[in-house]
Write a structure and sequence with these properties.
By secondary structure, this protein is α/β, with parallel strands linked by helices. The protein has helices spanning 17-31, 37-41, 48-58, 65-83, 95-104, 118-124, 148-157, 171-179, 208-215; strands at residues 4-7, 109-112, 133-135, 164-168, 183-187, 198-200. Bound molecules: 6-O-phosphono-alpha-D-glucopyranose (G6P) and magnesium ion. Its cofactor is Mg(2+).
């Protein structure tokens, strides 16, 4: 059957979570509290504005709307400092093989990310032009777990939702994919991504055998 893929970006194509972490942690330090890698898990797949809210909650810090805007800009500026140094070396293992397989088999694919920096990141790692469609944080009004981002992706690919395969590393993303009536492959731990139809530790799980199973 005809299928199409919709990929999340952070944690699936590249590991930008480590850069988000460094930038959020520096902000927390500046505001006088600790921000751990465990805390960072809570921000995966979550929009920038929502991430700041969660961070401020962790630190029990209350600030004005104006200060929030200032810190959002500050965090993103620091994050972009890391992003601007990214190269194709940072594409996660298994991704190139998978995209080559999809190209060879004329299976189209889109990006479905909460990140407003998604187009820049894809440019940096040299993958921008390979995607048939890009849906990012600038295109959606409702964040994951709302299915909007993936529904727009399916529309852009002109594909029925039930024929779309979403690849996601975040709980909110898996929920969004299932709410969109799509097949979901989780990348991470089974205990965390239990609602996905399949879960692999990393992107090398997309073996030719598994891809055959998806298509047939
Ligand atoms: C992805 C990441 C989140 C990040 C969000 C917004 O979903 O997993 O950690 O907060 O994108 O990213 P942005 O680049 O717009 O700040
Ligand atoms: Mg992700």
């Amino acid at each position: 059957k005809e299928i199409a893929f919709i990929f999340d970006l952070d944690g699936v194509i590249v590991d930008t979570a480590k850069y988000h972490f460094l930038a959020w942690r520096n902000l927390a330090i500046q505001l006088g509290f600790e921000f751990t890698e465990e805390h960072n898990e809570l921000l995966k797949g979550v929009s920038r504005v929502k991430s700041l809210e969660i961070l401020l909650n962790i630190g029990k810090v209350e600030i004005s709307e104006e200060e929030k805007q200032k810190y959002l800009v500050q965090k993103n500026t620091e994050y972009l400092g890391f992003v601007n140094k990214m190269t194709s070396d940072e594409i996660l293992p298994g991704v190139n093989d998978l995209l080559n397989y999809l190209d060879a088999n004329k299976i189209t694919y889109a990006l479905g990310s909460a990140s407003k920096n998604a187009p820049l990141i894809l440019e940096k790692v040299g993958l921008y032009s390979r995607f048939s469609a890009i849906v990012d944080g600038n295109d959606v009004s409702k964040a994951k777990p709302d299915p909007e981002v993936f529904l727009i992706g399916a529309k852009k690919l002109e594909m029925k939702t039930e024929n779309c395969v979403v690849v996601e590393d975040a709980i909110a993303g898996v929920e969004a994919a299932k709410a969109a009536n799509m097949t979901c492959v989780g990348i991470g731990e089974k205990e965390v991504l239990g609602h996905a139809d399949f879960v692999f530790g990393d992107m090398t799980g997309f073996t030719p055998e598994f891809l055959n199973q998806l298509i047939n």
